[in-house]
Amino acid sequence: MSGEKEKDKSKVHKLSLKGSAKYVAEFFNFSINTILFQRGVYPAEDFTAVKKYGLTMLVSSDDQVKAYIKKIMSQLDKWMIGGKISKLVVVITNKDSGEHVERWQFDVQIFSKSSSKKSSSKKATDKENASPTEVTPTPSVDKTEVEIQSEIQSIFRQITASVTFLPELNGDCTFNVLVYADADSDVPMEWGDSDAKEIENGEKVQLRSFSTNNHRVDTLVSYRLVE
């Protein structure tokens, strides 16, 4: 009996492409909220504590911020499931100067067995780090949700610890989310084209990554040094 239970458990933990896409989209949702909280873009009292990934996460309770993130996430879910996303970026901008002071970049890779088909059909609109589409073969070892959650925990701990090296944000700041989607993606009317919002002469720090059986997400933060 116990052997059968173990077998069932392992089946539950193996994520399909659709399940993996939702996992990544959910990670982006919590990443945006965590960055806004940790970097003090909005007051601490505007956030509510929730349990996720075995950690206490903070999510915005501000109606406008929630509506903005919800709109992004509803579209992101569709693009992720369709394999259309190559990158998600959170940019923090000083309201007074209009300068981009911090840029959090999450690069998305989809593992695929049919590499030749994938590389010929994907035309990314991402002109920022333009390079031939790289396709990584599917990992031979299936990862469990426990292993994936452990990797995600490490990333959120790093985001939390980033306050030790990132310069303090001065003045009122706002944020934007950029999504790099394939050229053939179905884009809603309210989504407009944007420049890359790079940090001029900024420092870059590579953070940890996590991967499911179908996706890999790498995290990078760029920031402007205080003169």
From TrEMBL:
Keywords, comma-separated and alphabetical: Cell cycle, Cell division, Mitosis, Nucleus
Annotated compartments: Nucleus
Domain HORMA, first and last residues per copy: 18-221
Principal location listed in the UniProt entry: nucleus
GO biological processes: cell division; mitotic spindle assembly checkpoint signaling
Chain positions covered by the region annotation Disordered: 118-143
Gene Ontology cellular component terms for the protein in this record: cytoplasm; kinetochore; mitotic checkpoint complex; nucleoplasm
Comp. bias (Polar residues): 130-141
InterPro entries: HORMA_dom, HORMA_dom_sf, Mad2-like
Manganese recorded as keyword: no
Pfam families according to UniProt: HORMA (PF02301)
Top-level division of the source organism's lineage: Eukaryota
Family to which this protein belongs: Belongs to the MAD2 family.
Name of the protein described by the UniProt record: Mitotic spindle checkpoint component mad2
